Request: fold
Amino acid sequence: MTPAHILRDRTLRRFAVFLALIAAALPAAALAFSLLAQRTAQAMLLERDGAVASALLAQGMAENDIAAALAASEVSGAGRALLARIGRTAATPGLLLPELAGYRQAVLPAALAAAGLLAALLLGGALVFARAQAARLAGAERLLRRYAEGDFSARLPRDAEGPLGSLFAAAEELATMLQAKTEAEHRAQQFLKQTIADISHQLKTPLAALGLYQEIIAAEPDNADAVRAFAGKAGDALLRMESLIQAMLKITRLDAGSIRFAPAACPLPDLAGRAVRDLLTRAEREGKRIRLEGDPALTLWCDPDWTAEALGNLVKNGLDHTAAGGLVQVTWRHTPGMVQVQVADNGSGIAPEDIHHIFKRFYRGRSGPDARGAGLGLPLARAIVEGQGGAVTVQSTPGQGSVFAVSFPDGPDGLTEL
Ligand code: ADP
Reply:
């Protein structure tokens, strides 16, 4: 961490400026102190010279001689000897004591005051800085605790720079991840709740019917017609429940990512043939036609079993919503970068108020003639196609029919045609 990075923090920068000011004030204070000391010493020496000059004048010494004596700067041996004889040496106890005491009295308070002021400034400044920094950290801590409780309404300040700014940015990244995870968990919980409610709702009716059929059969065991009729109905209800549970399990496994698709190059005529195989008898029985059309050499890179099931669901829906004499057409073509399979019918079409909801689980159109549908065919088809990187779209005109388009990107090496 470089000093430049550290000083990007606003509070640290201010404190550094404050310290620089104090550091600049120190030599200024020393200079002022030495000037004061010089003046004080000068006044004392002048006082001393005054006393000596006064004494010499009183003894009748000529003024010129006194002036020359005071201006002298050389110290002779005789002079030193005289001072020693009259007891004025450096070792003399109490020599110049009153003057020195006066000197200390004049200089010491100023020195103490300056030192005290600087120390107080330093301590005060450090305290203010520490409090400001502690307040910012305490605010951040409060906010992080709110994050931990799942409240992301407030955010750490974004204008913080320097080391604290880096820390806040890292904490914000963590909070964003936590928020996304919390929201995903909440959504998953809601979804699970809704799914459980939907399943129990869907199973309730056939289960109640089964109970009723069983009661009727138990009440009239000798009535062969009733037993046969209600056993048949019970069989239907069981089949319905089985297909519902199967579809639900498949969607859940697709959602959980526990299904591994096994993609391969699938010739489209084969794939479309597989998709409609189980529906041909039904179509014939109901007087409807299923037509397959497209380039016989075109292949699709996909999992054949799952994709045939998705296309089969679309064809089944076409039959469900087409009247006798109707037509369900499966066509395929290659467009740049992708292969598209269309399932079109000339049936009832989809009401505009339904079209945005038909891929939702358990959604059933209001005007559909098939009252037995569970609303899982389209969501399953979409989950299968999207799970392989494809997409399903729909276009429909009420009264004229619907077109479902399944688009897959080209397979490896642009493999689309044999
Ligand atoms: P289900 O067919 O079991 O009701 P789906 O998920 O397959 O469930 O379809 C949901 C709804 O979409 C249907 O109830 C129907 O209203 C509408 N729908 C789907 N395909 C067609 C179609 N080809 N023509 C008209 N309506 C359709």
User: Anything to note?
Assistant: The longest strand covers residues 327-335. The pocket of adenosine-5'-diphosphate is lined by residues 317-318, 320-321, 345, 347-350, 354, 358, 363-365, 368, 370, 373-379, 402 (CB under 6 Å). The two ends are 61 Å apart (CA to CA). Residues 162-219 form the longest helix (58 residues).
